[in-house]
C-alpha cells in the first residue's frame, strides 16, 4: 500500500461543555490533549477534523437564565463566546465549534424521532414524578436530594447514591427536598415518551461483538447489555429549554 493510500481520515471531538457557565480545568485538560493529538496526526500526513460545541439545552440553563434575568438564548450565546475566547487563549483550534441549539440539530432530532415513531419504537407511558409545587415544575433527578433508600445516607441526589453506589428513581428517596426551592415536592403522574431500547437488545449485542471497542470498555458495556435493558425516557415536561417534540404540546426532547 502506498503512503498516499495509507492516509487515515479521522474525526475527533470532546465531551461538550455545558452552556451555563465558564470552562473549568477539566475542560481545558481534555481539549488541550485532543488538540495536541490532532496536530500530531496532521504532522504525519493524516486527515484530521476536530469538532466540538456547546451542550445548550436543559433545566439548568433555563434556571440560570432566569436567575440572570435574560433569555436562555442570550445566555447560551454569551457563554459560547466566552468559551471560544478561552479556547483561543490556549491555542486550541477546532475546525468547527458549534452548538446543540441549532437548526440542523432540531431538523435531525425531529427527523429521527418521526422515523422511530413510524417504525413503532416510540411508546407513551404514564410515570410518577416529583413535582415542585412552589416552582410549578416537575423535578429532574439532579434537582432532588434526600436520604438513600438503600444505605440511608443523607443528602443524596435523586438518581444514585454517592455513598453506596445504589441507583433508584427520585420517588424512592426518603424525605426528598427540591434543591430549587428547598420545599418538599409531591408525587404527580405525567405522560412521557420512551424509546423502546429493550426491543433492540439482540442488535446491540451483535454490534458490540463485531465492534473495535477497547476490551475494558467492551466488558463494561457487555455487563449492561447482559442485564435488563430499560426503555429510554426521551421527553421532559414544560417548562424546559430545548426543542419541542413534534405533535406534543408540552413535551421537549431530553438531551
From TrEMBL:
Q: Which UniProt keywords apply?
A: Aminoacyl-tRNA synthetase, ATP-binding, Ligase, Nucleotide-binding, Protein biosynthesis
Q: Which Pfam families match?
A: tRNA-synt_1g (PF09334)
Q: Which residues form a coiled coil?
A: none
Does the UniProt entry include the keyword ATP-binding?
A: yes
Q: What are the protein's GO molecular function terms?
A: ATP binding; methionine-tRNA ligase activity
Record's Gene Ontology CC terms? cytosol
Residues in Methionyl/Leucyl tRNA synthetase domain copies = 10-255
Q: Which SUPFAM superfamilies match?
A: Methionyl-tRNA synthetase (MetRS), Zn-domain, Nucleotidylyl transferase
Q: Which reaction does it catalyse?
A: tRNA(Met) + L-methionine + ATP = L-methionyl-tRNA(Met) + AMP + diphosphate
A Gene Ontology annotation in the biological process aspect, one of them, is:
methionyl-tRNA aminoacylation
The cross-references to InterPro entries, in alphabetical order and at most eight, read: aa-tRNA-synth_I_CS, Met-tRNA_ligase_1, Methionyl/Leucyl_tRNA_Synth, MetRS_core, MetRS_Zn, Rossmann-like_a/b/a_fold
Could you tell me what this protein is called? Methionyl-tRNA synthetase
Q: Which organism is it from?
A: marine metagenome
Taxonomic placement: unclassified sequences, metagenomes, ecological metagenomes
